[in-house]
Amino acid sequence: MSELKGQCMCGAVTVTATPAKPTLGACHCDMCRRWTSSMLVSFPSEPGYAALGPVKTYTSSDWAERAFCGECGSALWYRITLPGEMHGQTQMAAGLFENAGGNDLKLELFIDKKPDGYAFEGERRQMTEAEVMAMYAPSEEGDTQ
């Protein structure tokens, strides 16, 4: 896939990223809804993305951090910090990139947390809070998945 170039609302942060898949996902969890005042629509990024400018990060859970512009507050990415197979996986905020919208919405997370006031058309995988949380739960051997 081709590298995308984007920026935050004020232009202080510029971002380049290559989508790992031609798909978009939407997260309706409480934190994403508070962070964006809606849902976070994102795409999985290949390693090696870059951001220049006043990037701030916030550790929002035991397994992830969120990045935002230190000037205007625009959401930049959500990154898994949990050790293991998923470590470093990054979801880039699709709204930063003019041409990220060409990808199809393939996944909705925390579908049971989605407000009733909107819905997307079409078919996609939908995961509940319990299904998402199970991805991060320790296995029987004590390791995280």
Please tell me about this protein's structure.
The protein is mainly beta. The protein has one domain (4-136): Metal Binding Protein, Guanine Nucleotide Exchange Factor, Chain A (Beta Complex). The chain has two helices and eleven strands. The protein has helices spanning 30-36, 129-136, and strands at 4-7, 14-17, 23-27, 40-45, 50-52, 55-59, 64-69, 75-80, 90-93, 104-109, 125-127. Strand 6 and strand 7 form a beta hairpin. The longest helix is centred in the C-terminal third of the chain and has 8 residues, at 129-136. The two termini are 27 Å apart.
Query: Looking at CATH, which topology would you report?
Result: Metal Binding Protein, Guanine Nucleotide Exchange Factor, Chain A
Distance between the termini: 27 Å
**Which CATH class is shown?**
Mainly Beta
The helix-strand sequence is: EEEHEEEEEEEEH
Query: Class by helix and strand content?
Result: mainly beta
Number of helices: 2
Mean pLDDT, as a whole number? 90
What is the count of structural domains?
Answer: 1
Shape category = globular
Question: What CATH architecture do you see?
Answer: Beta Complex
Low-pLDDT windows of residues: none
Strand content: 35-45%
What is the topology, as strand order, of the major beta sheet?
6-7-8-9-4-3-10-11
User: What share of residues is helical?
Assistant: 10-25%
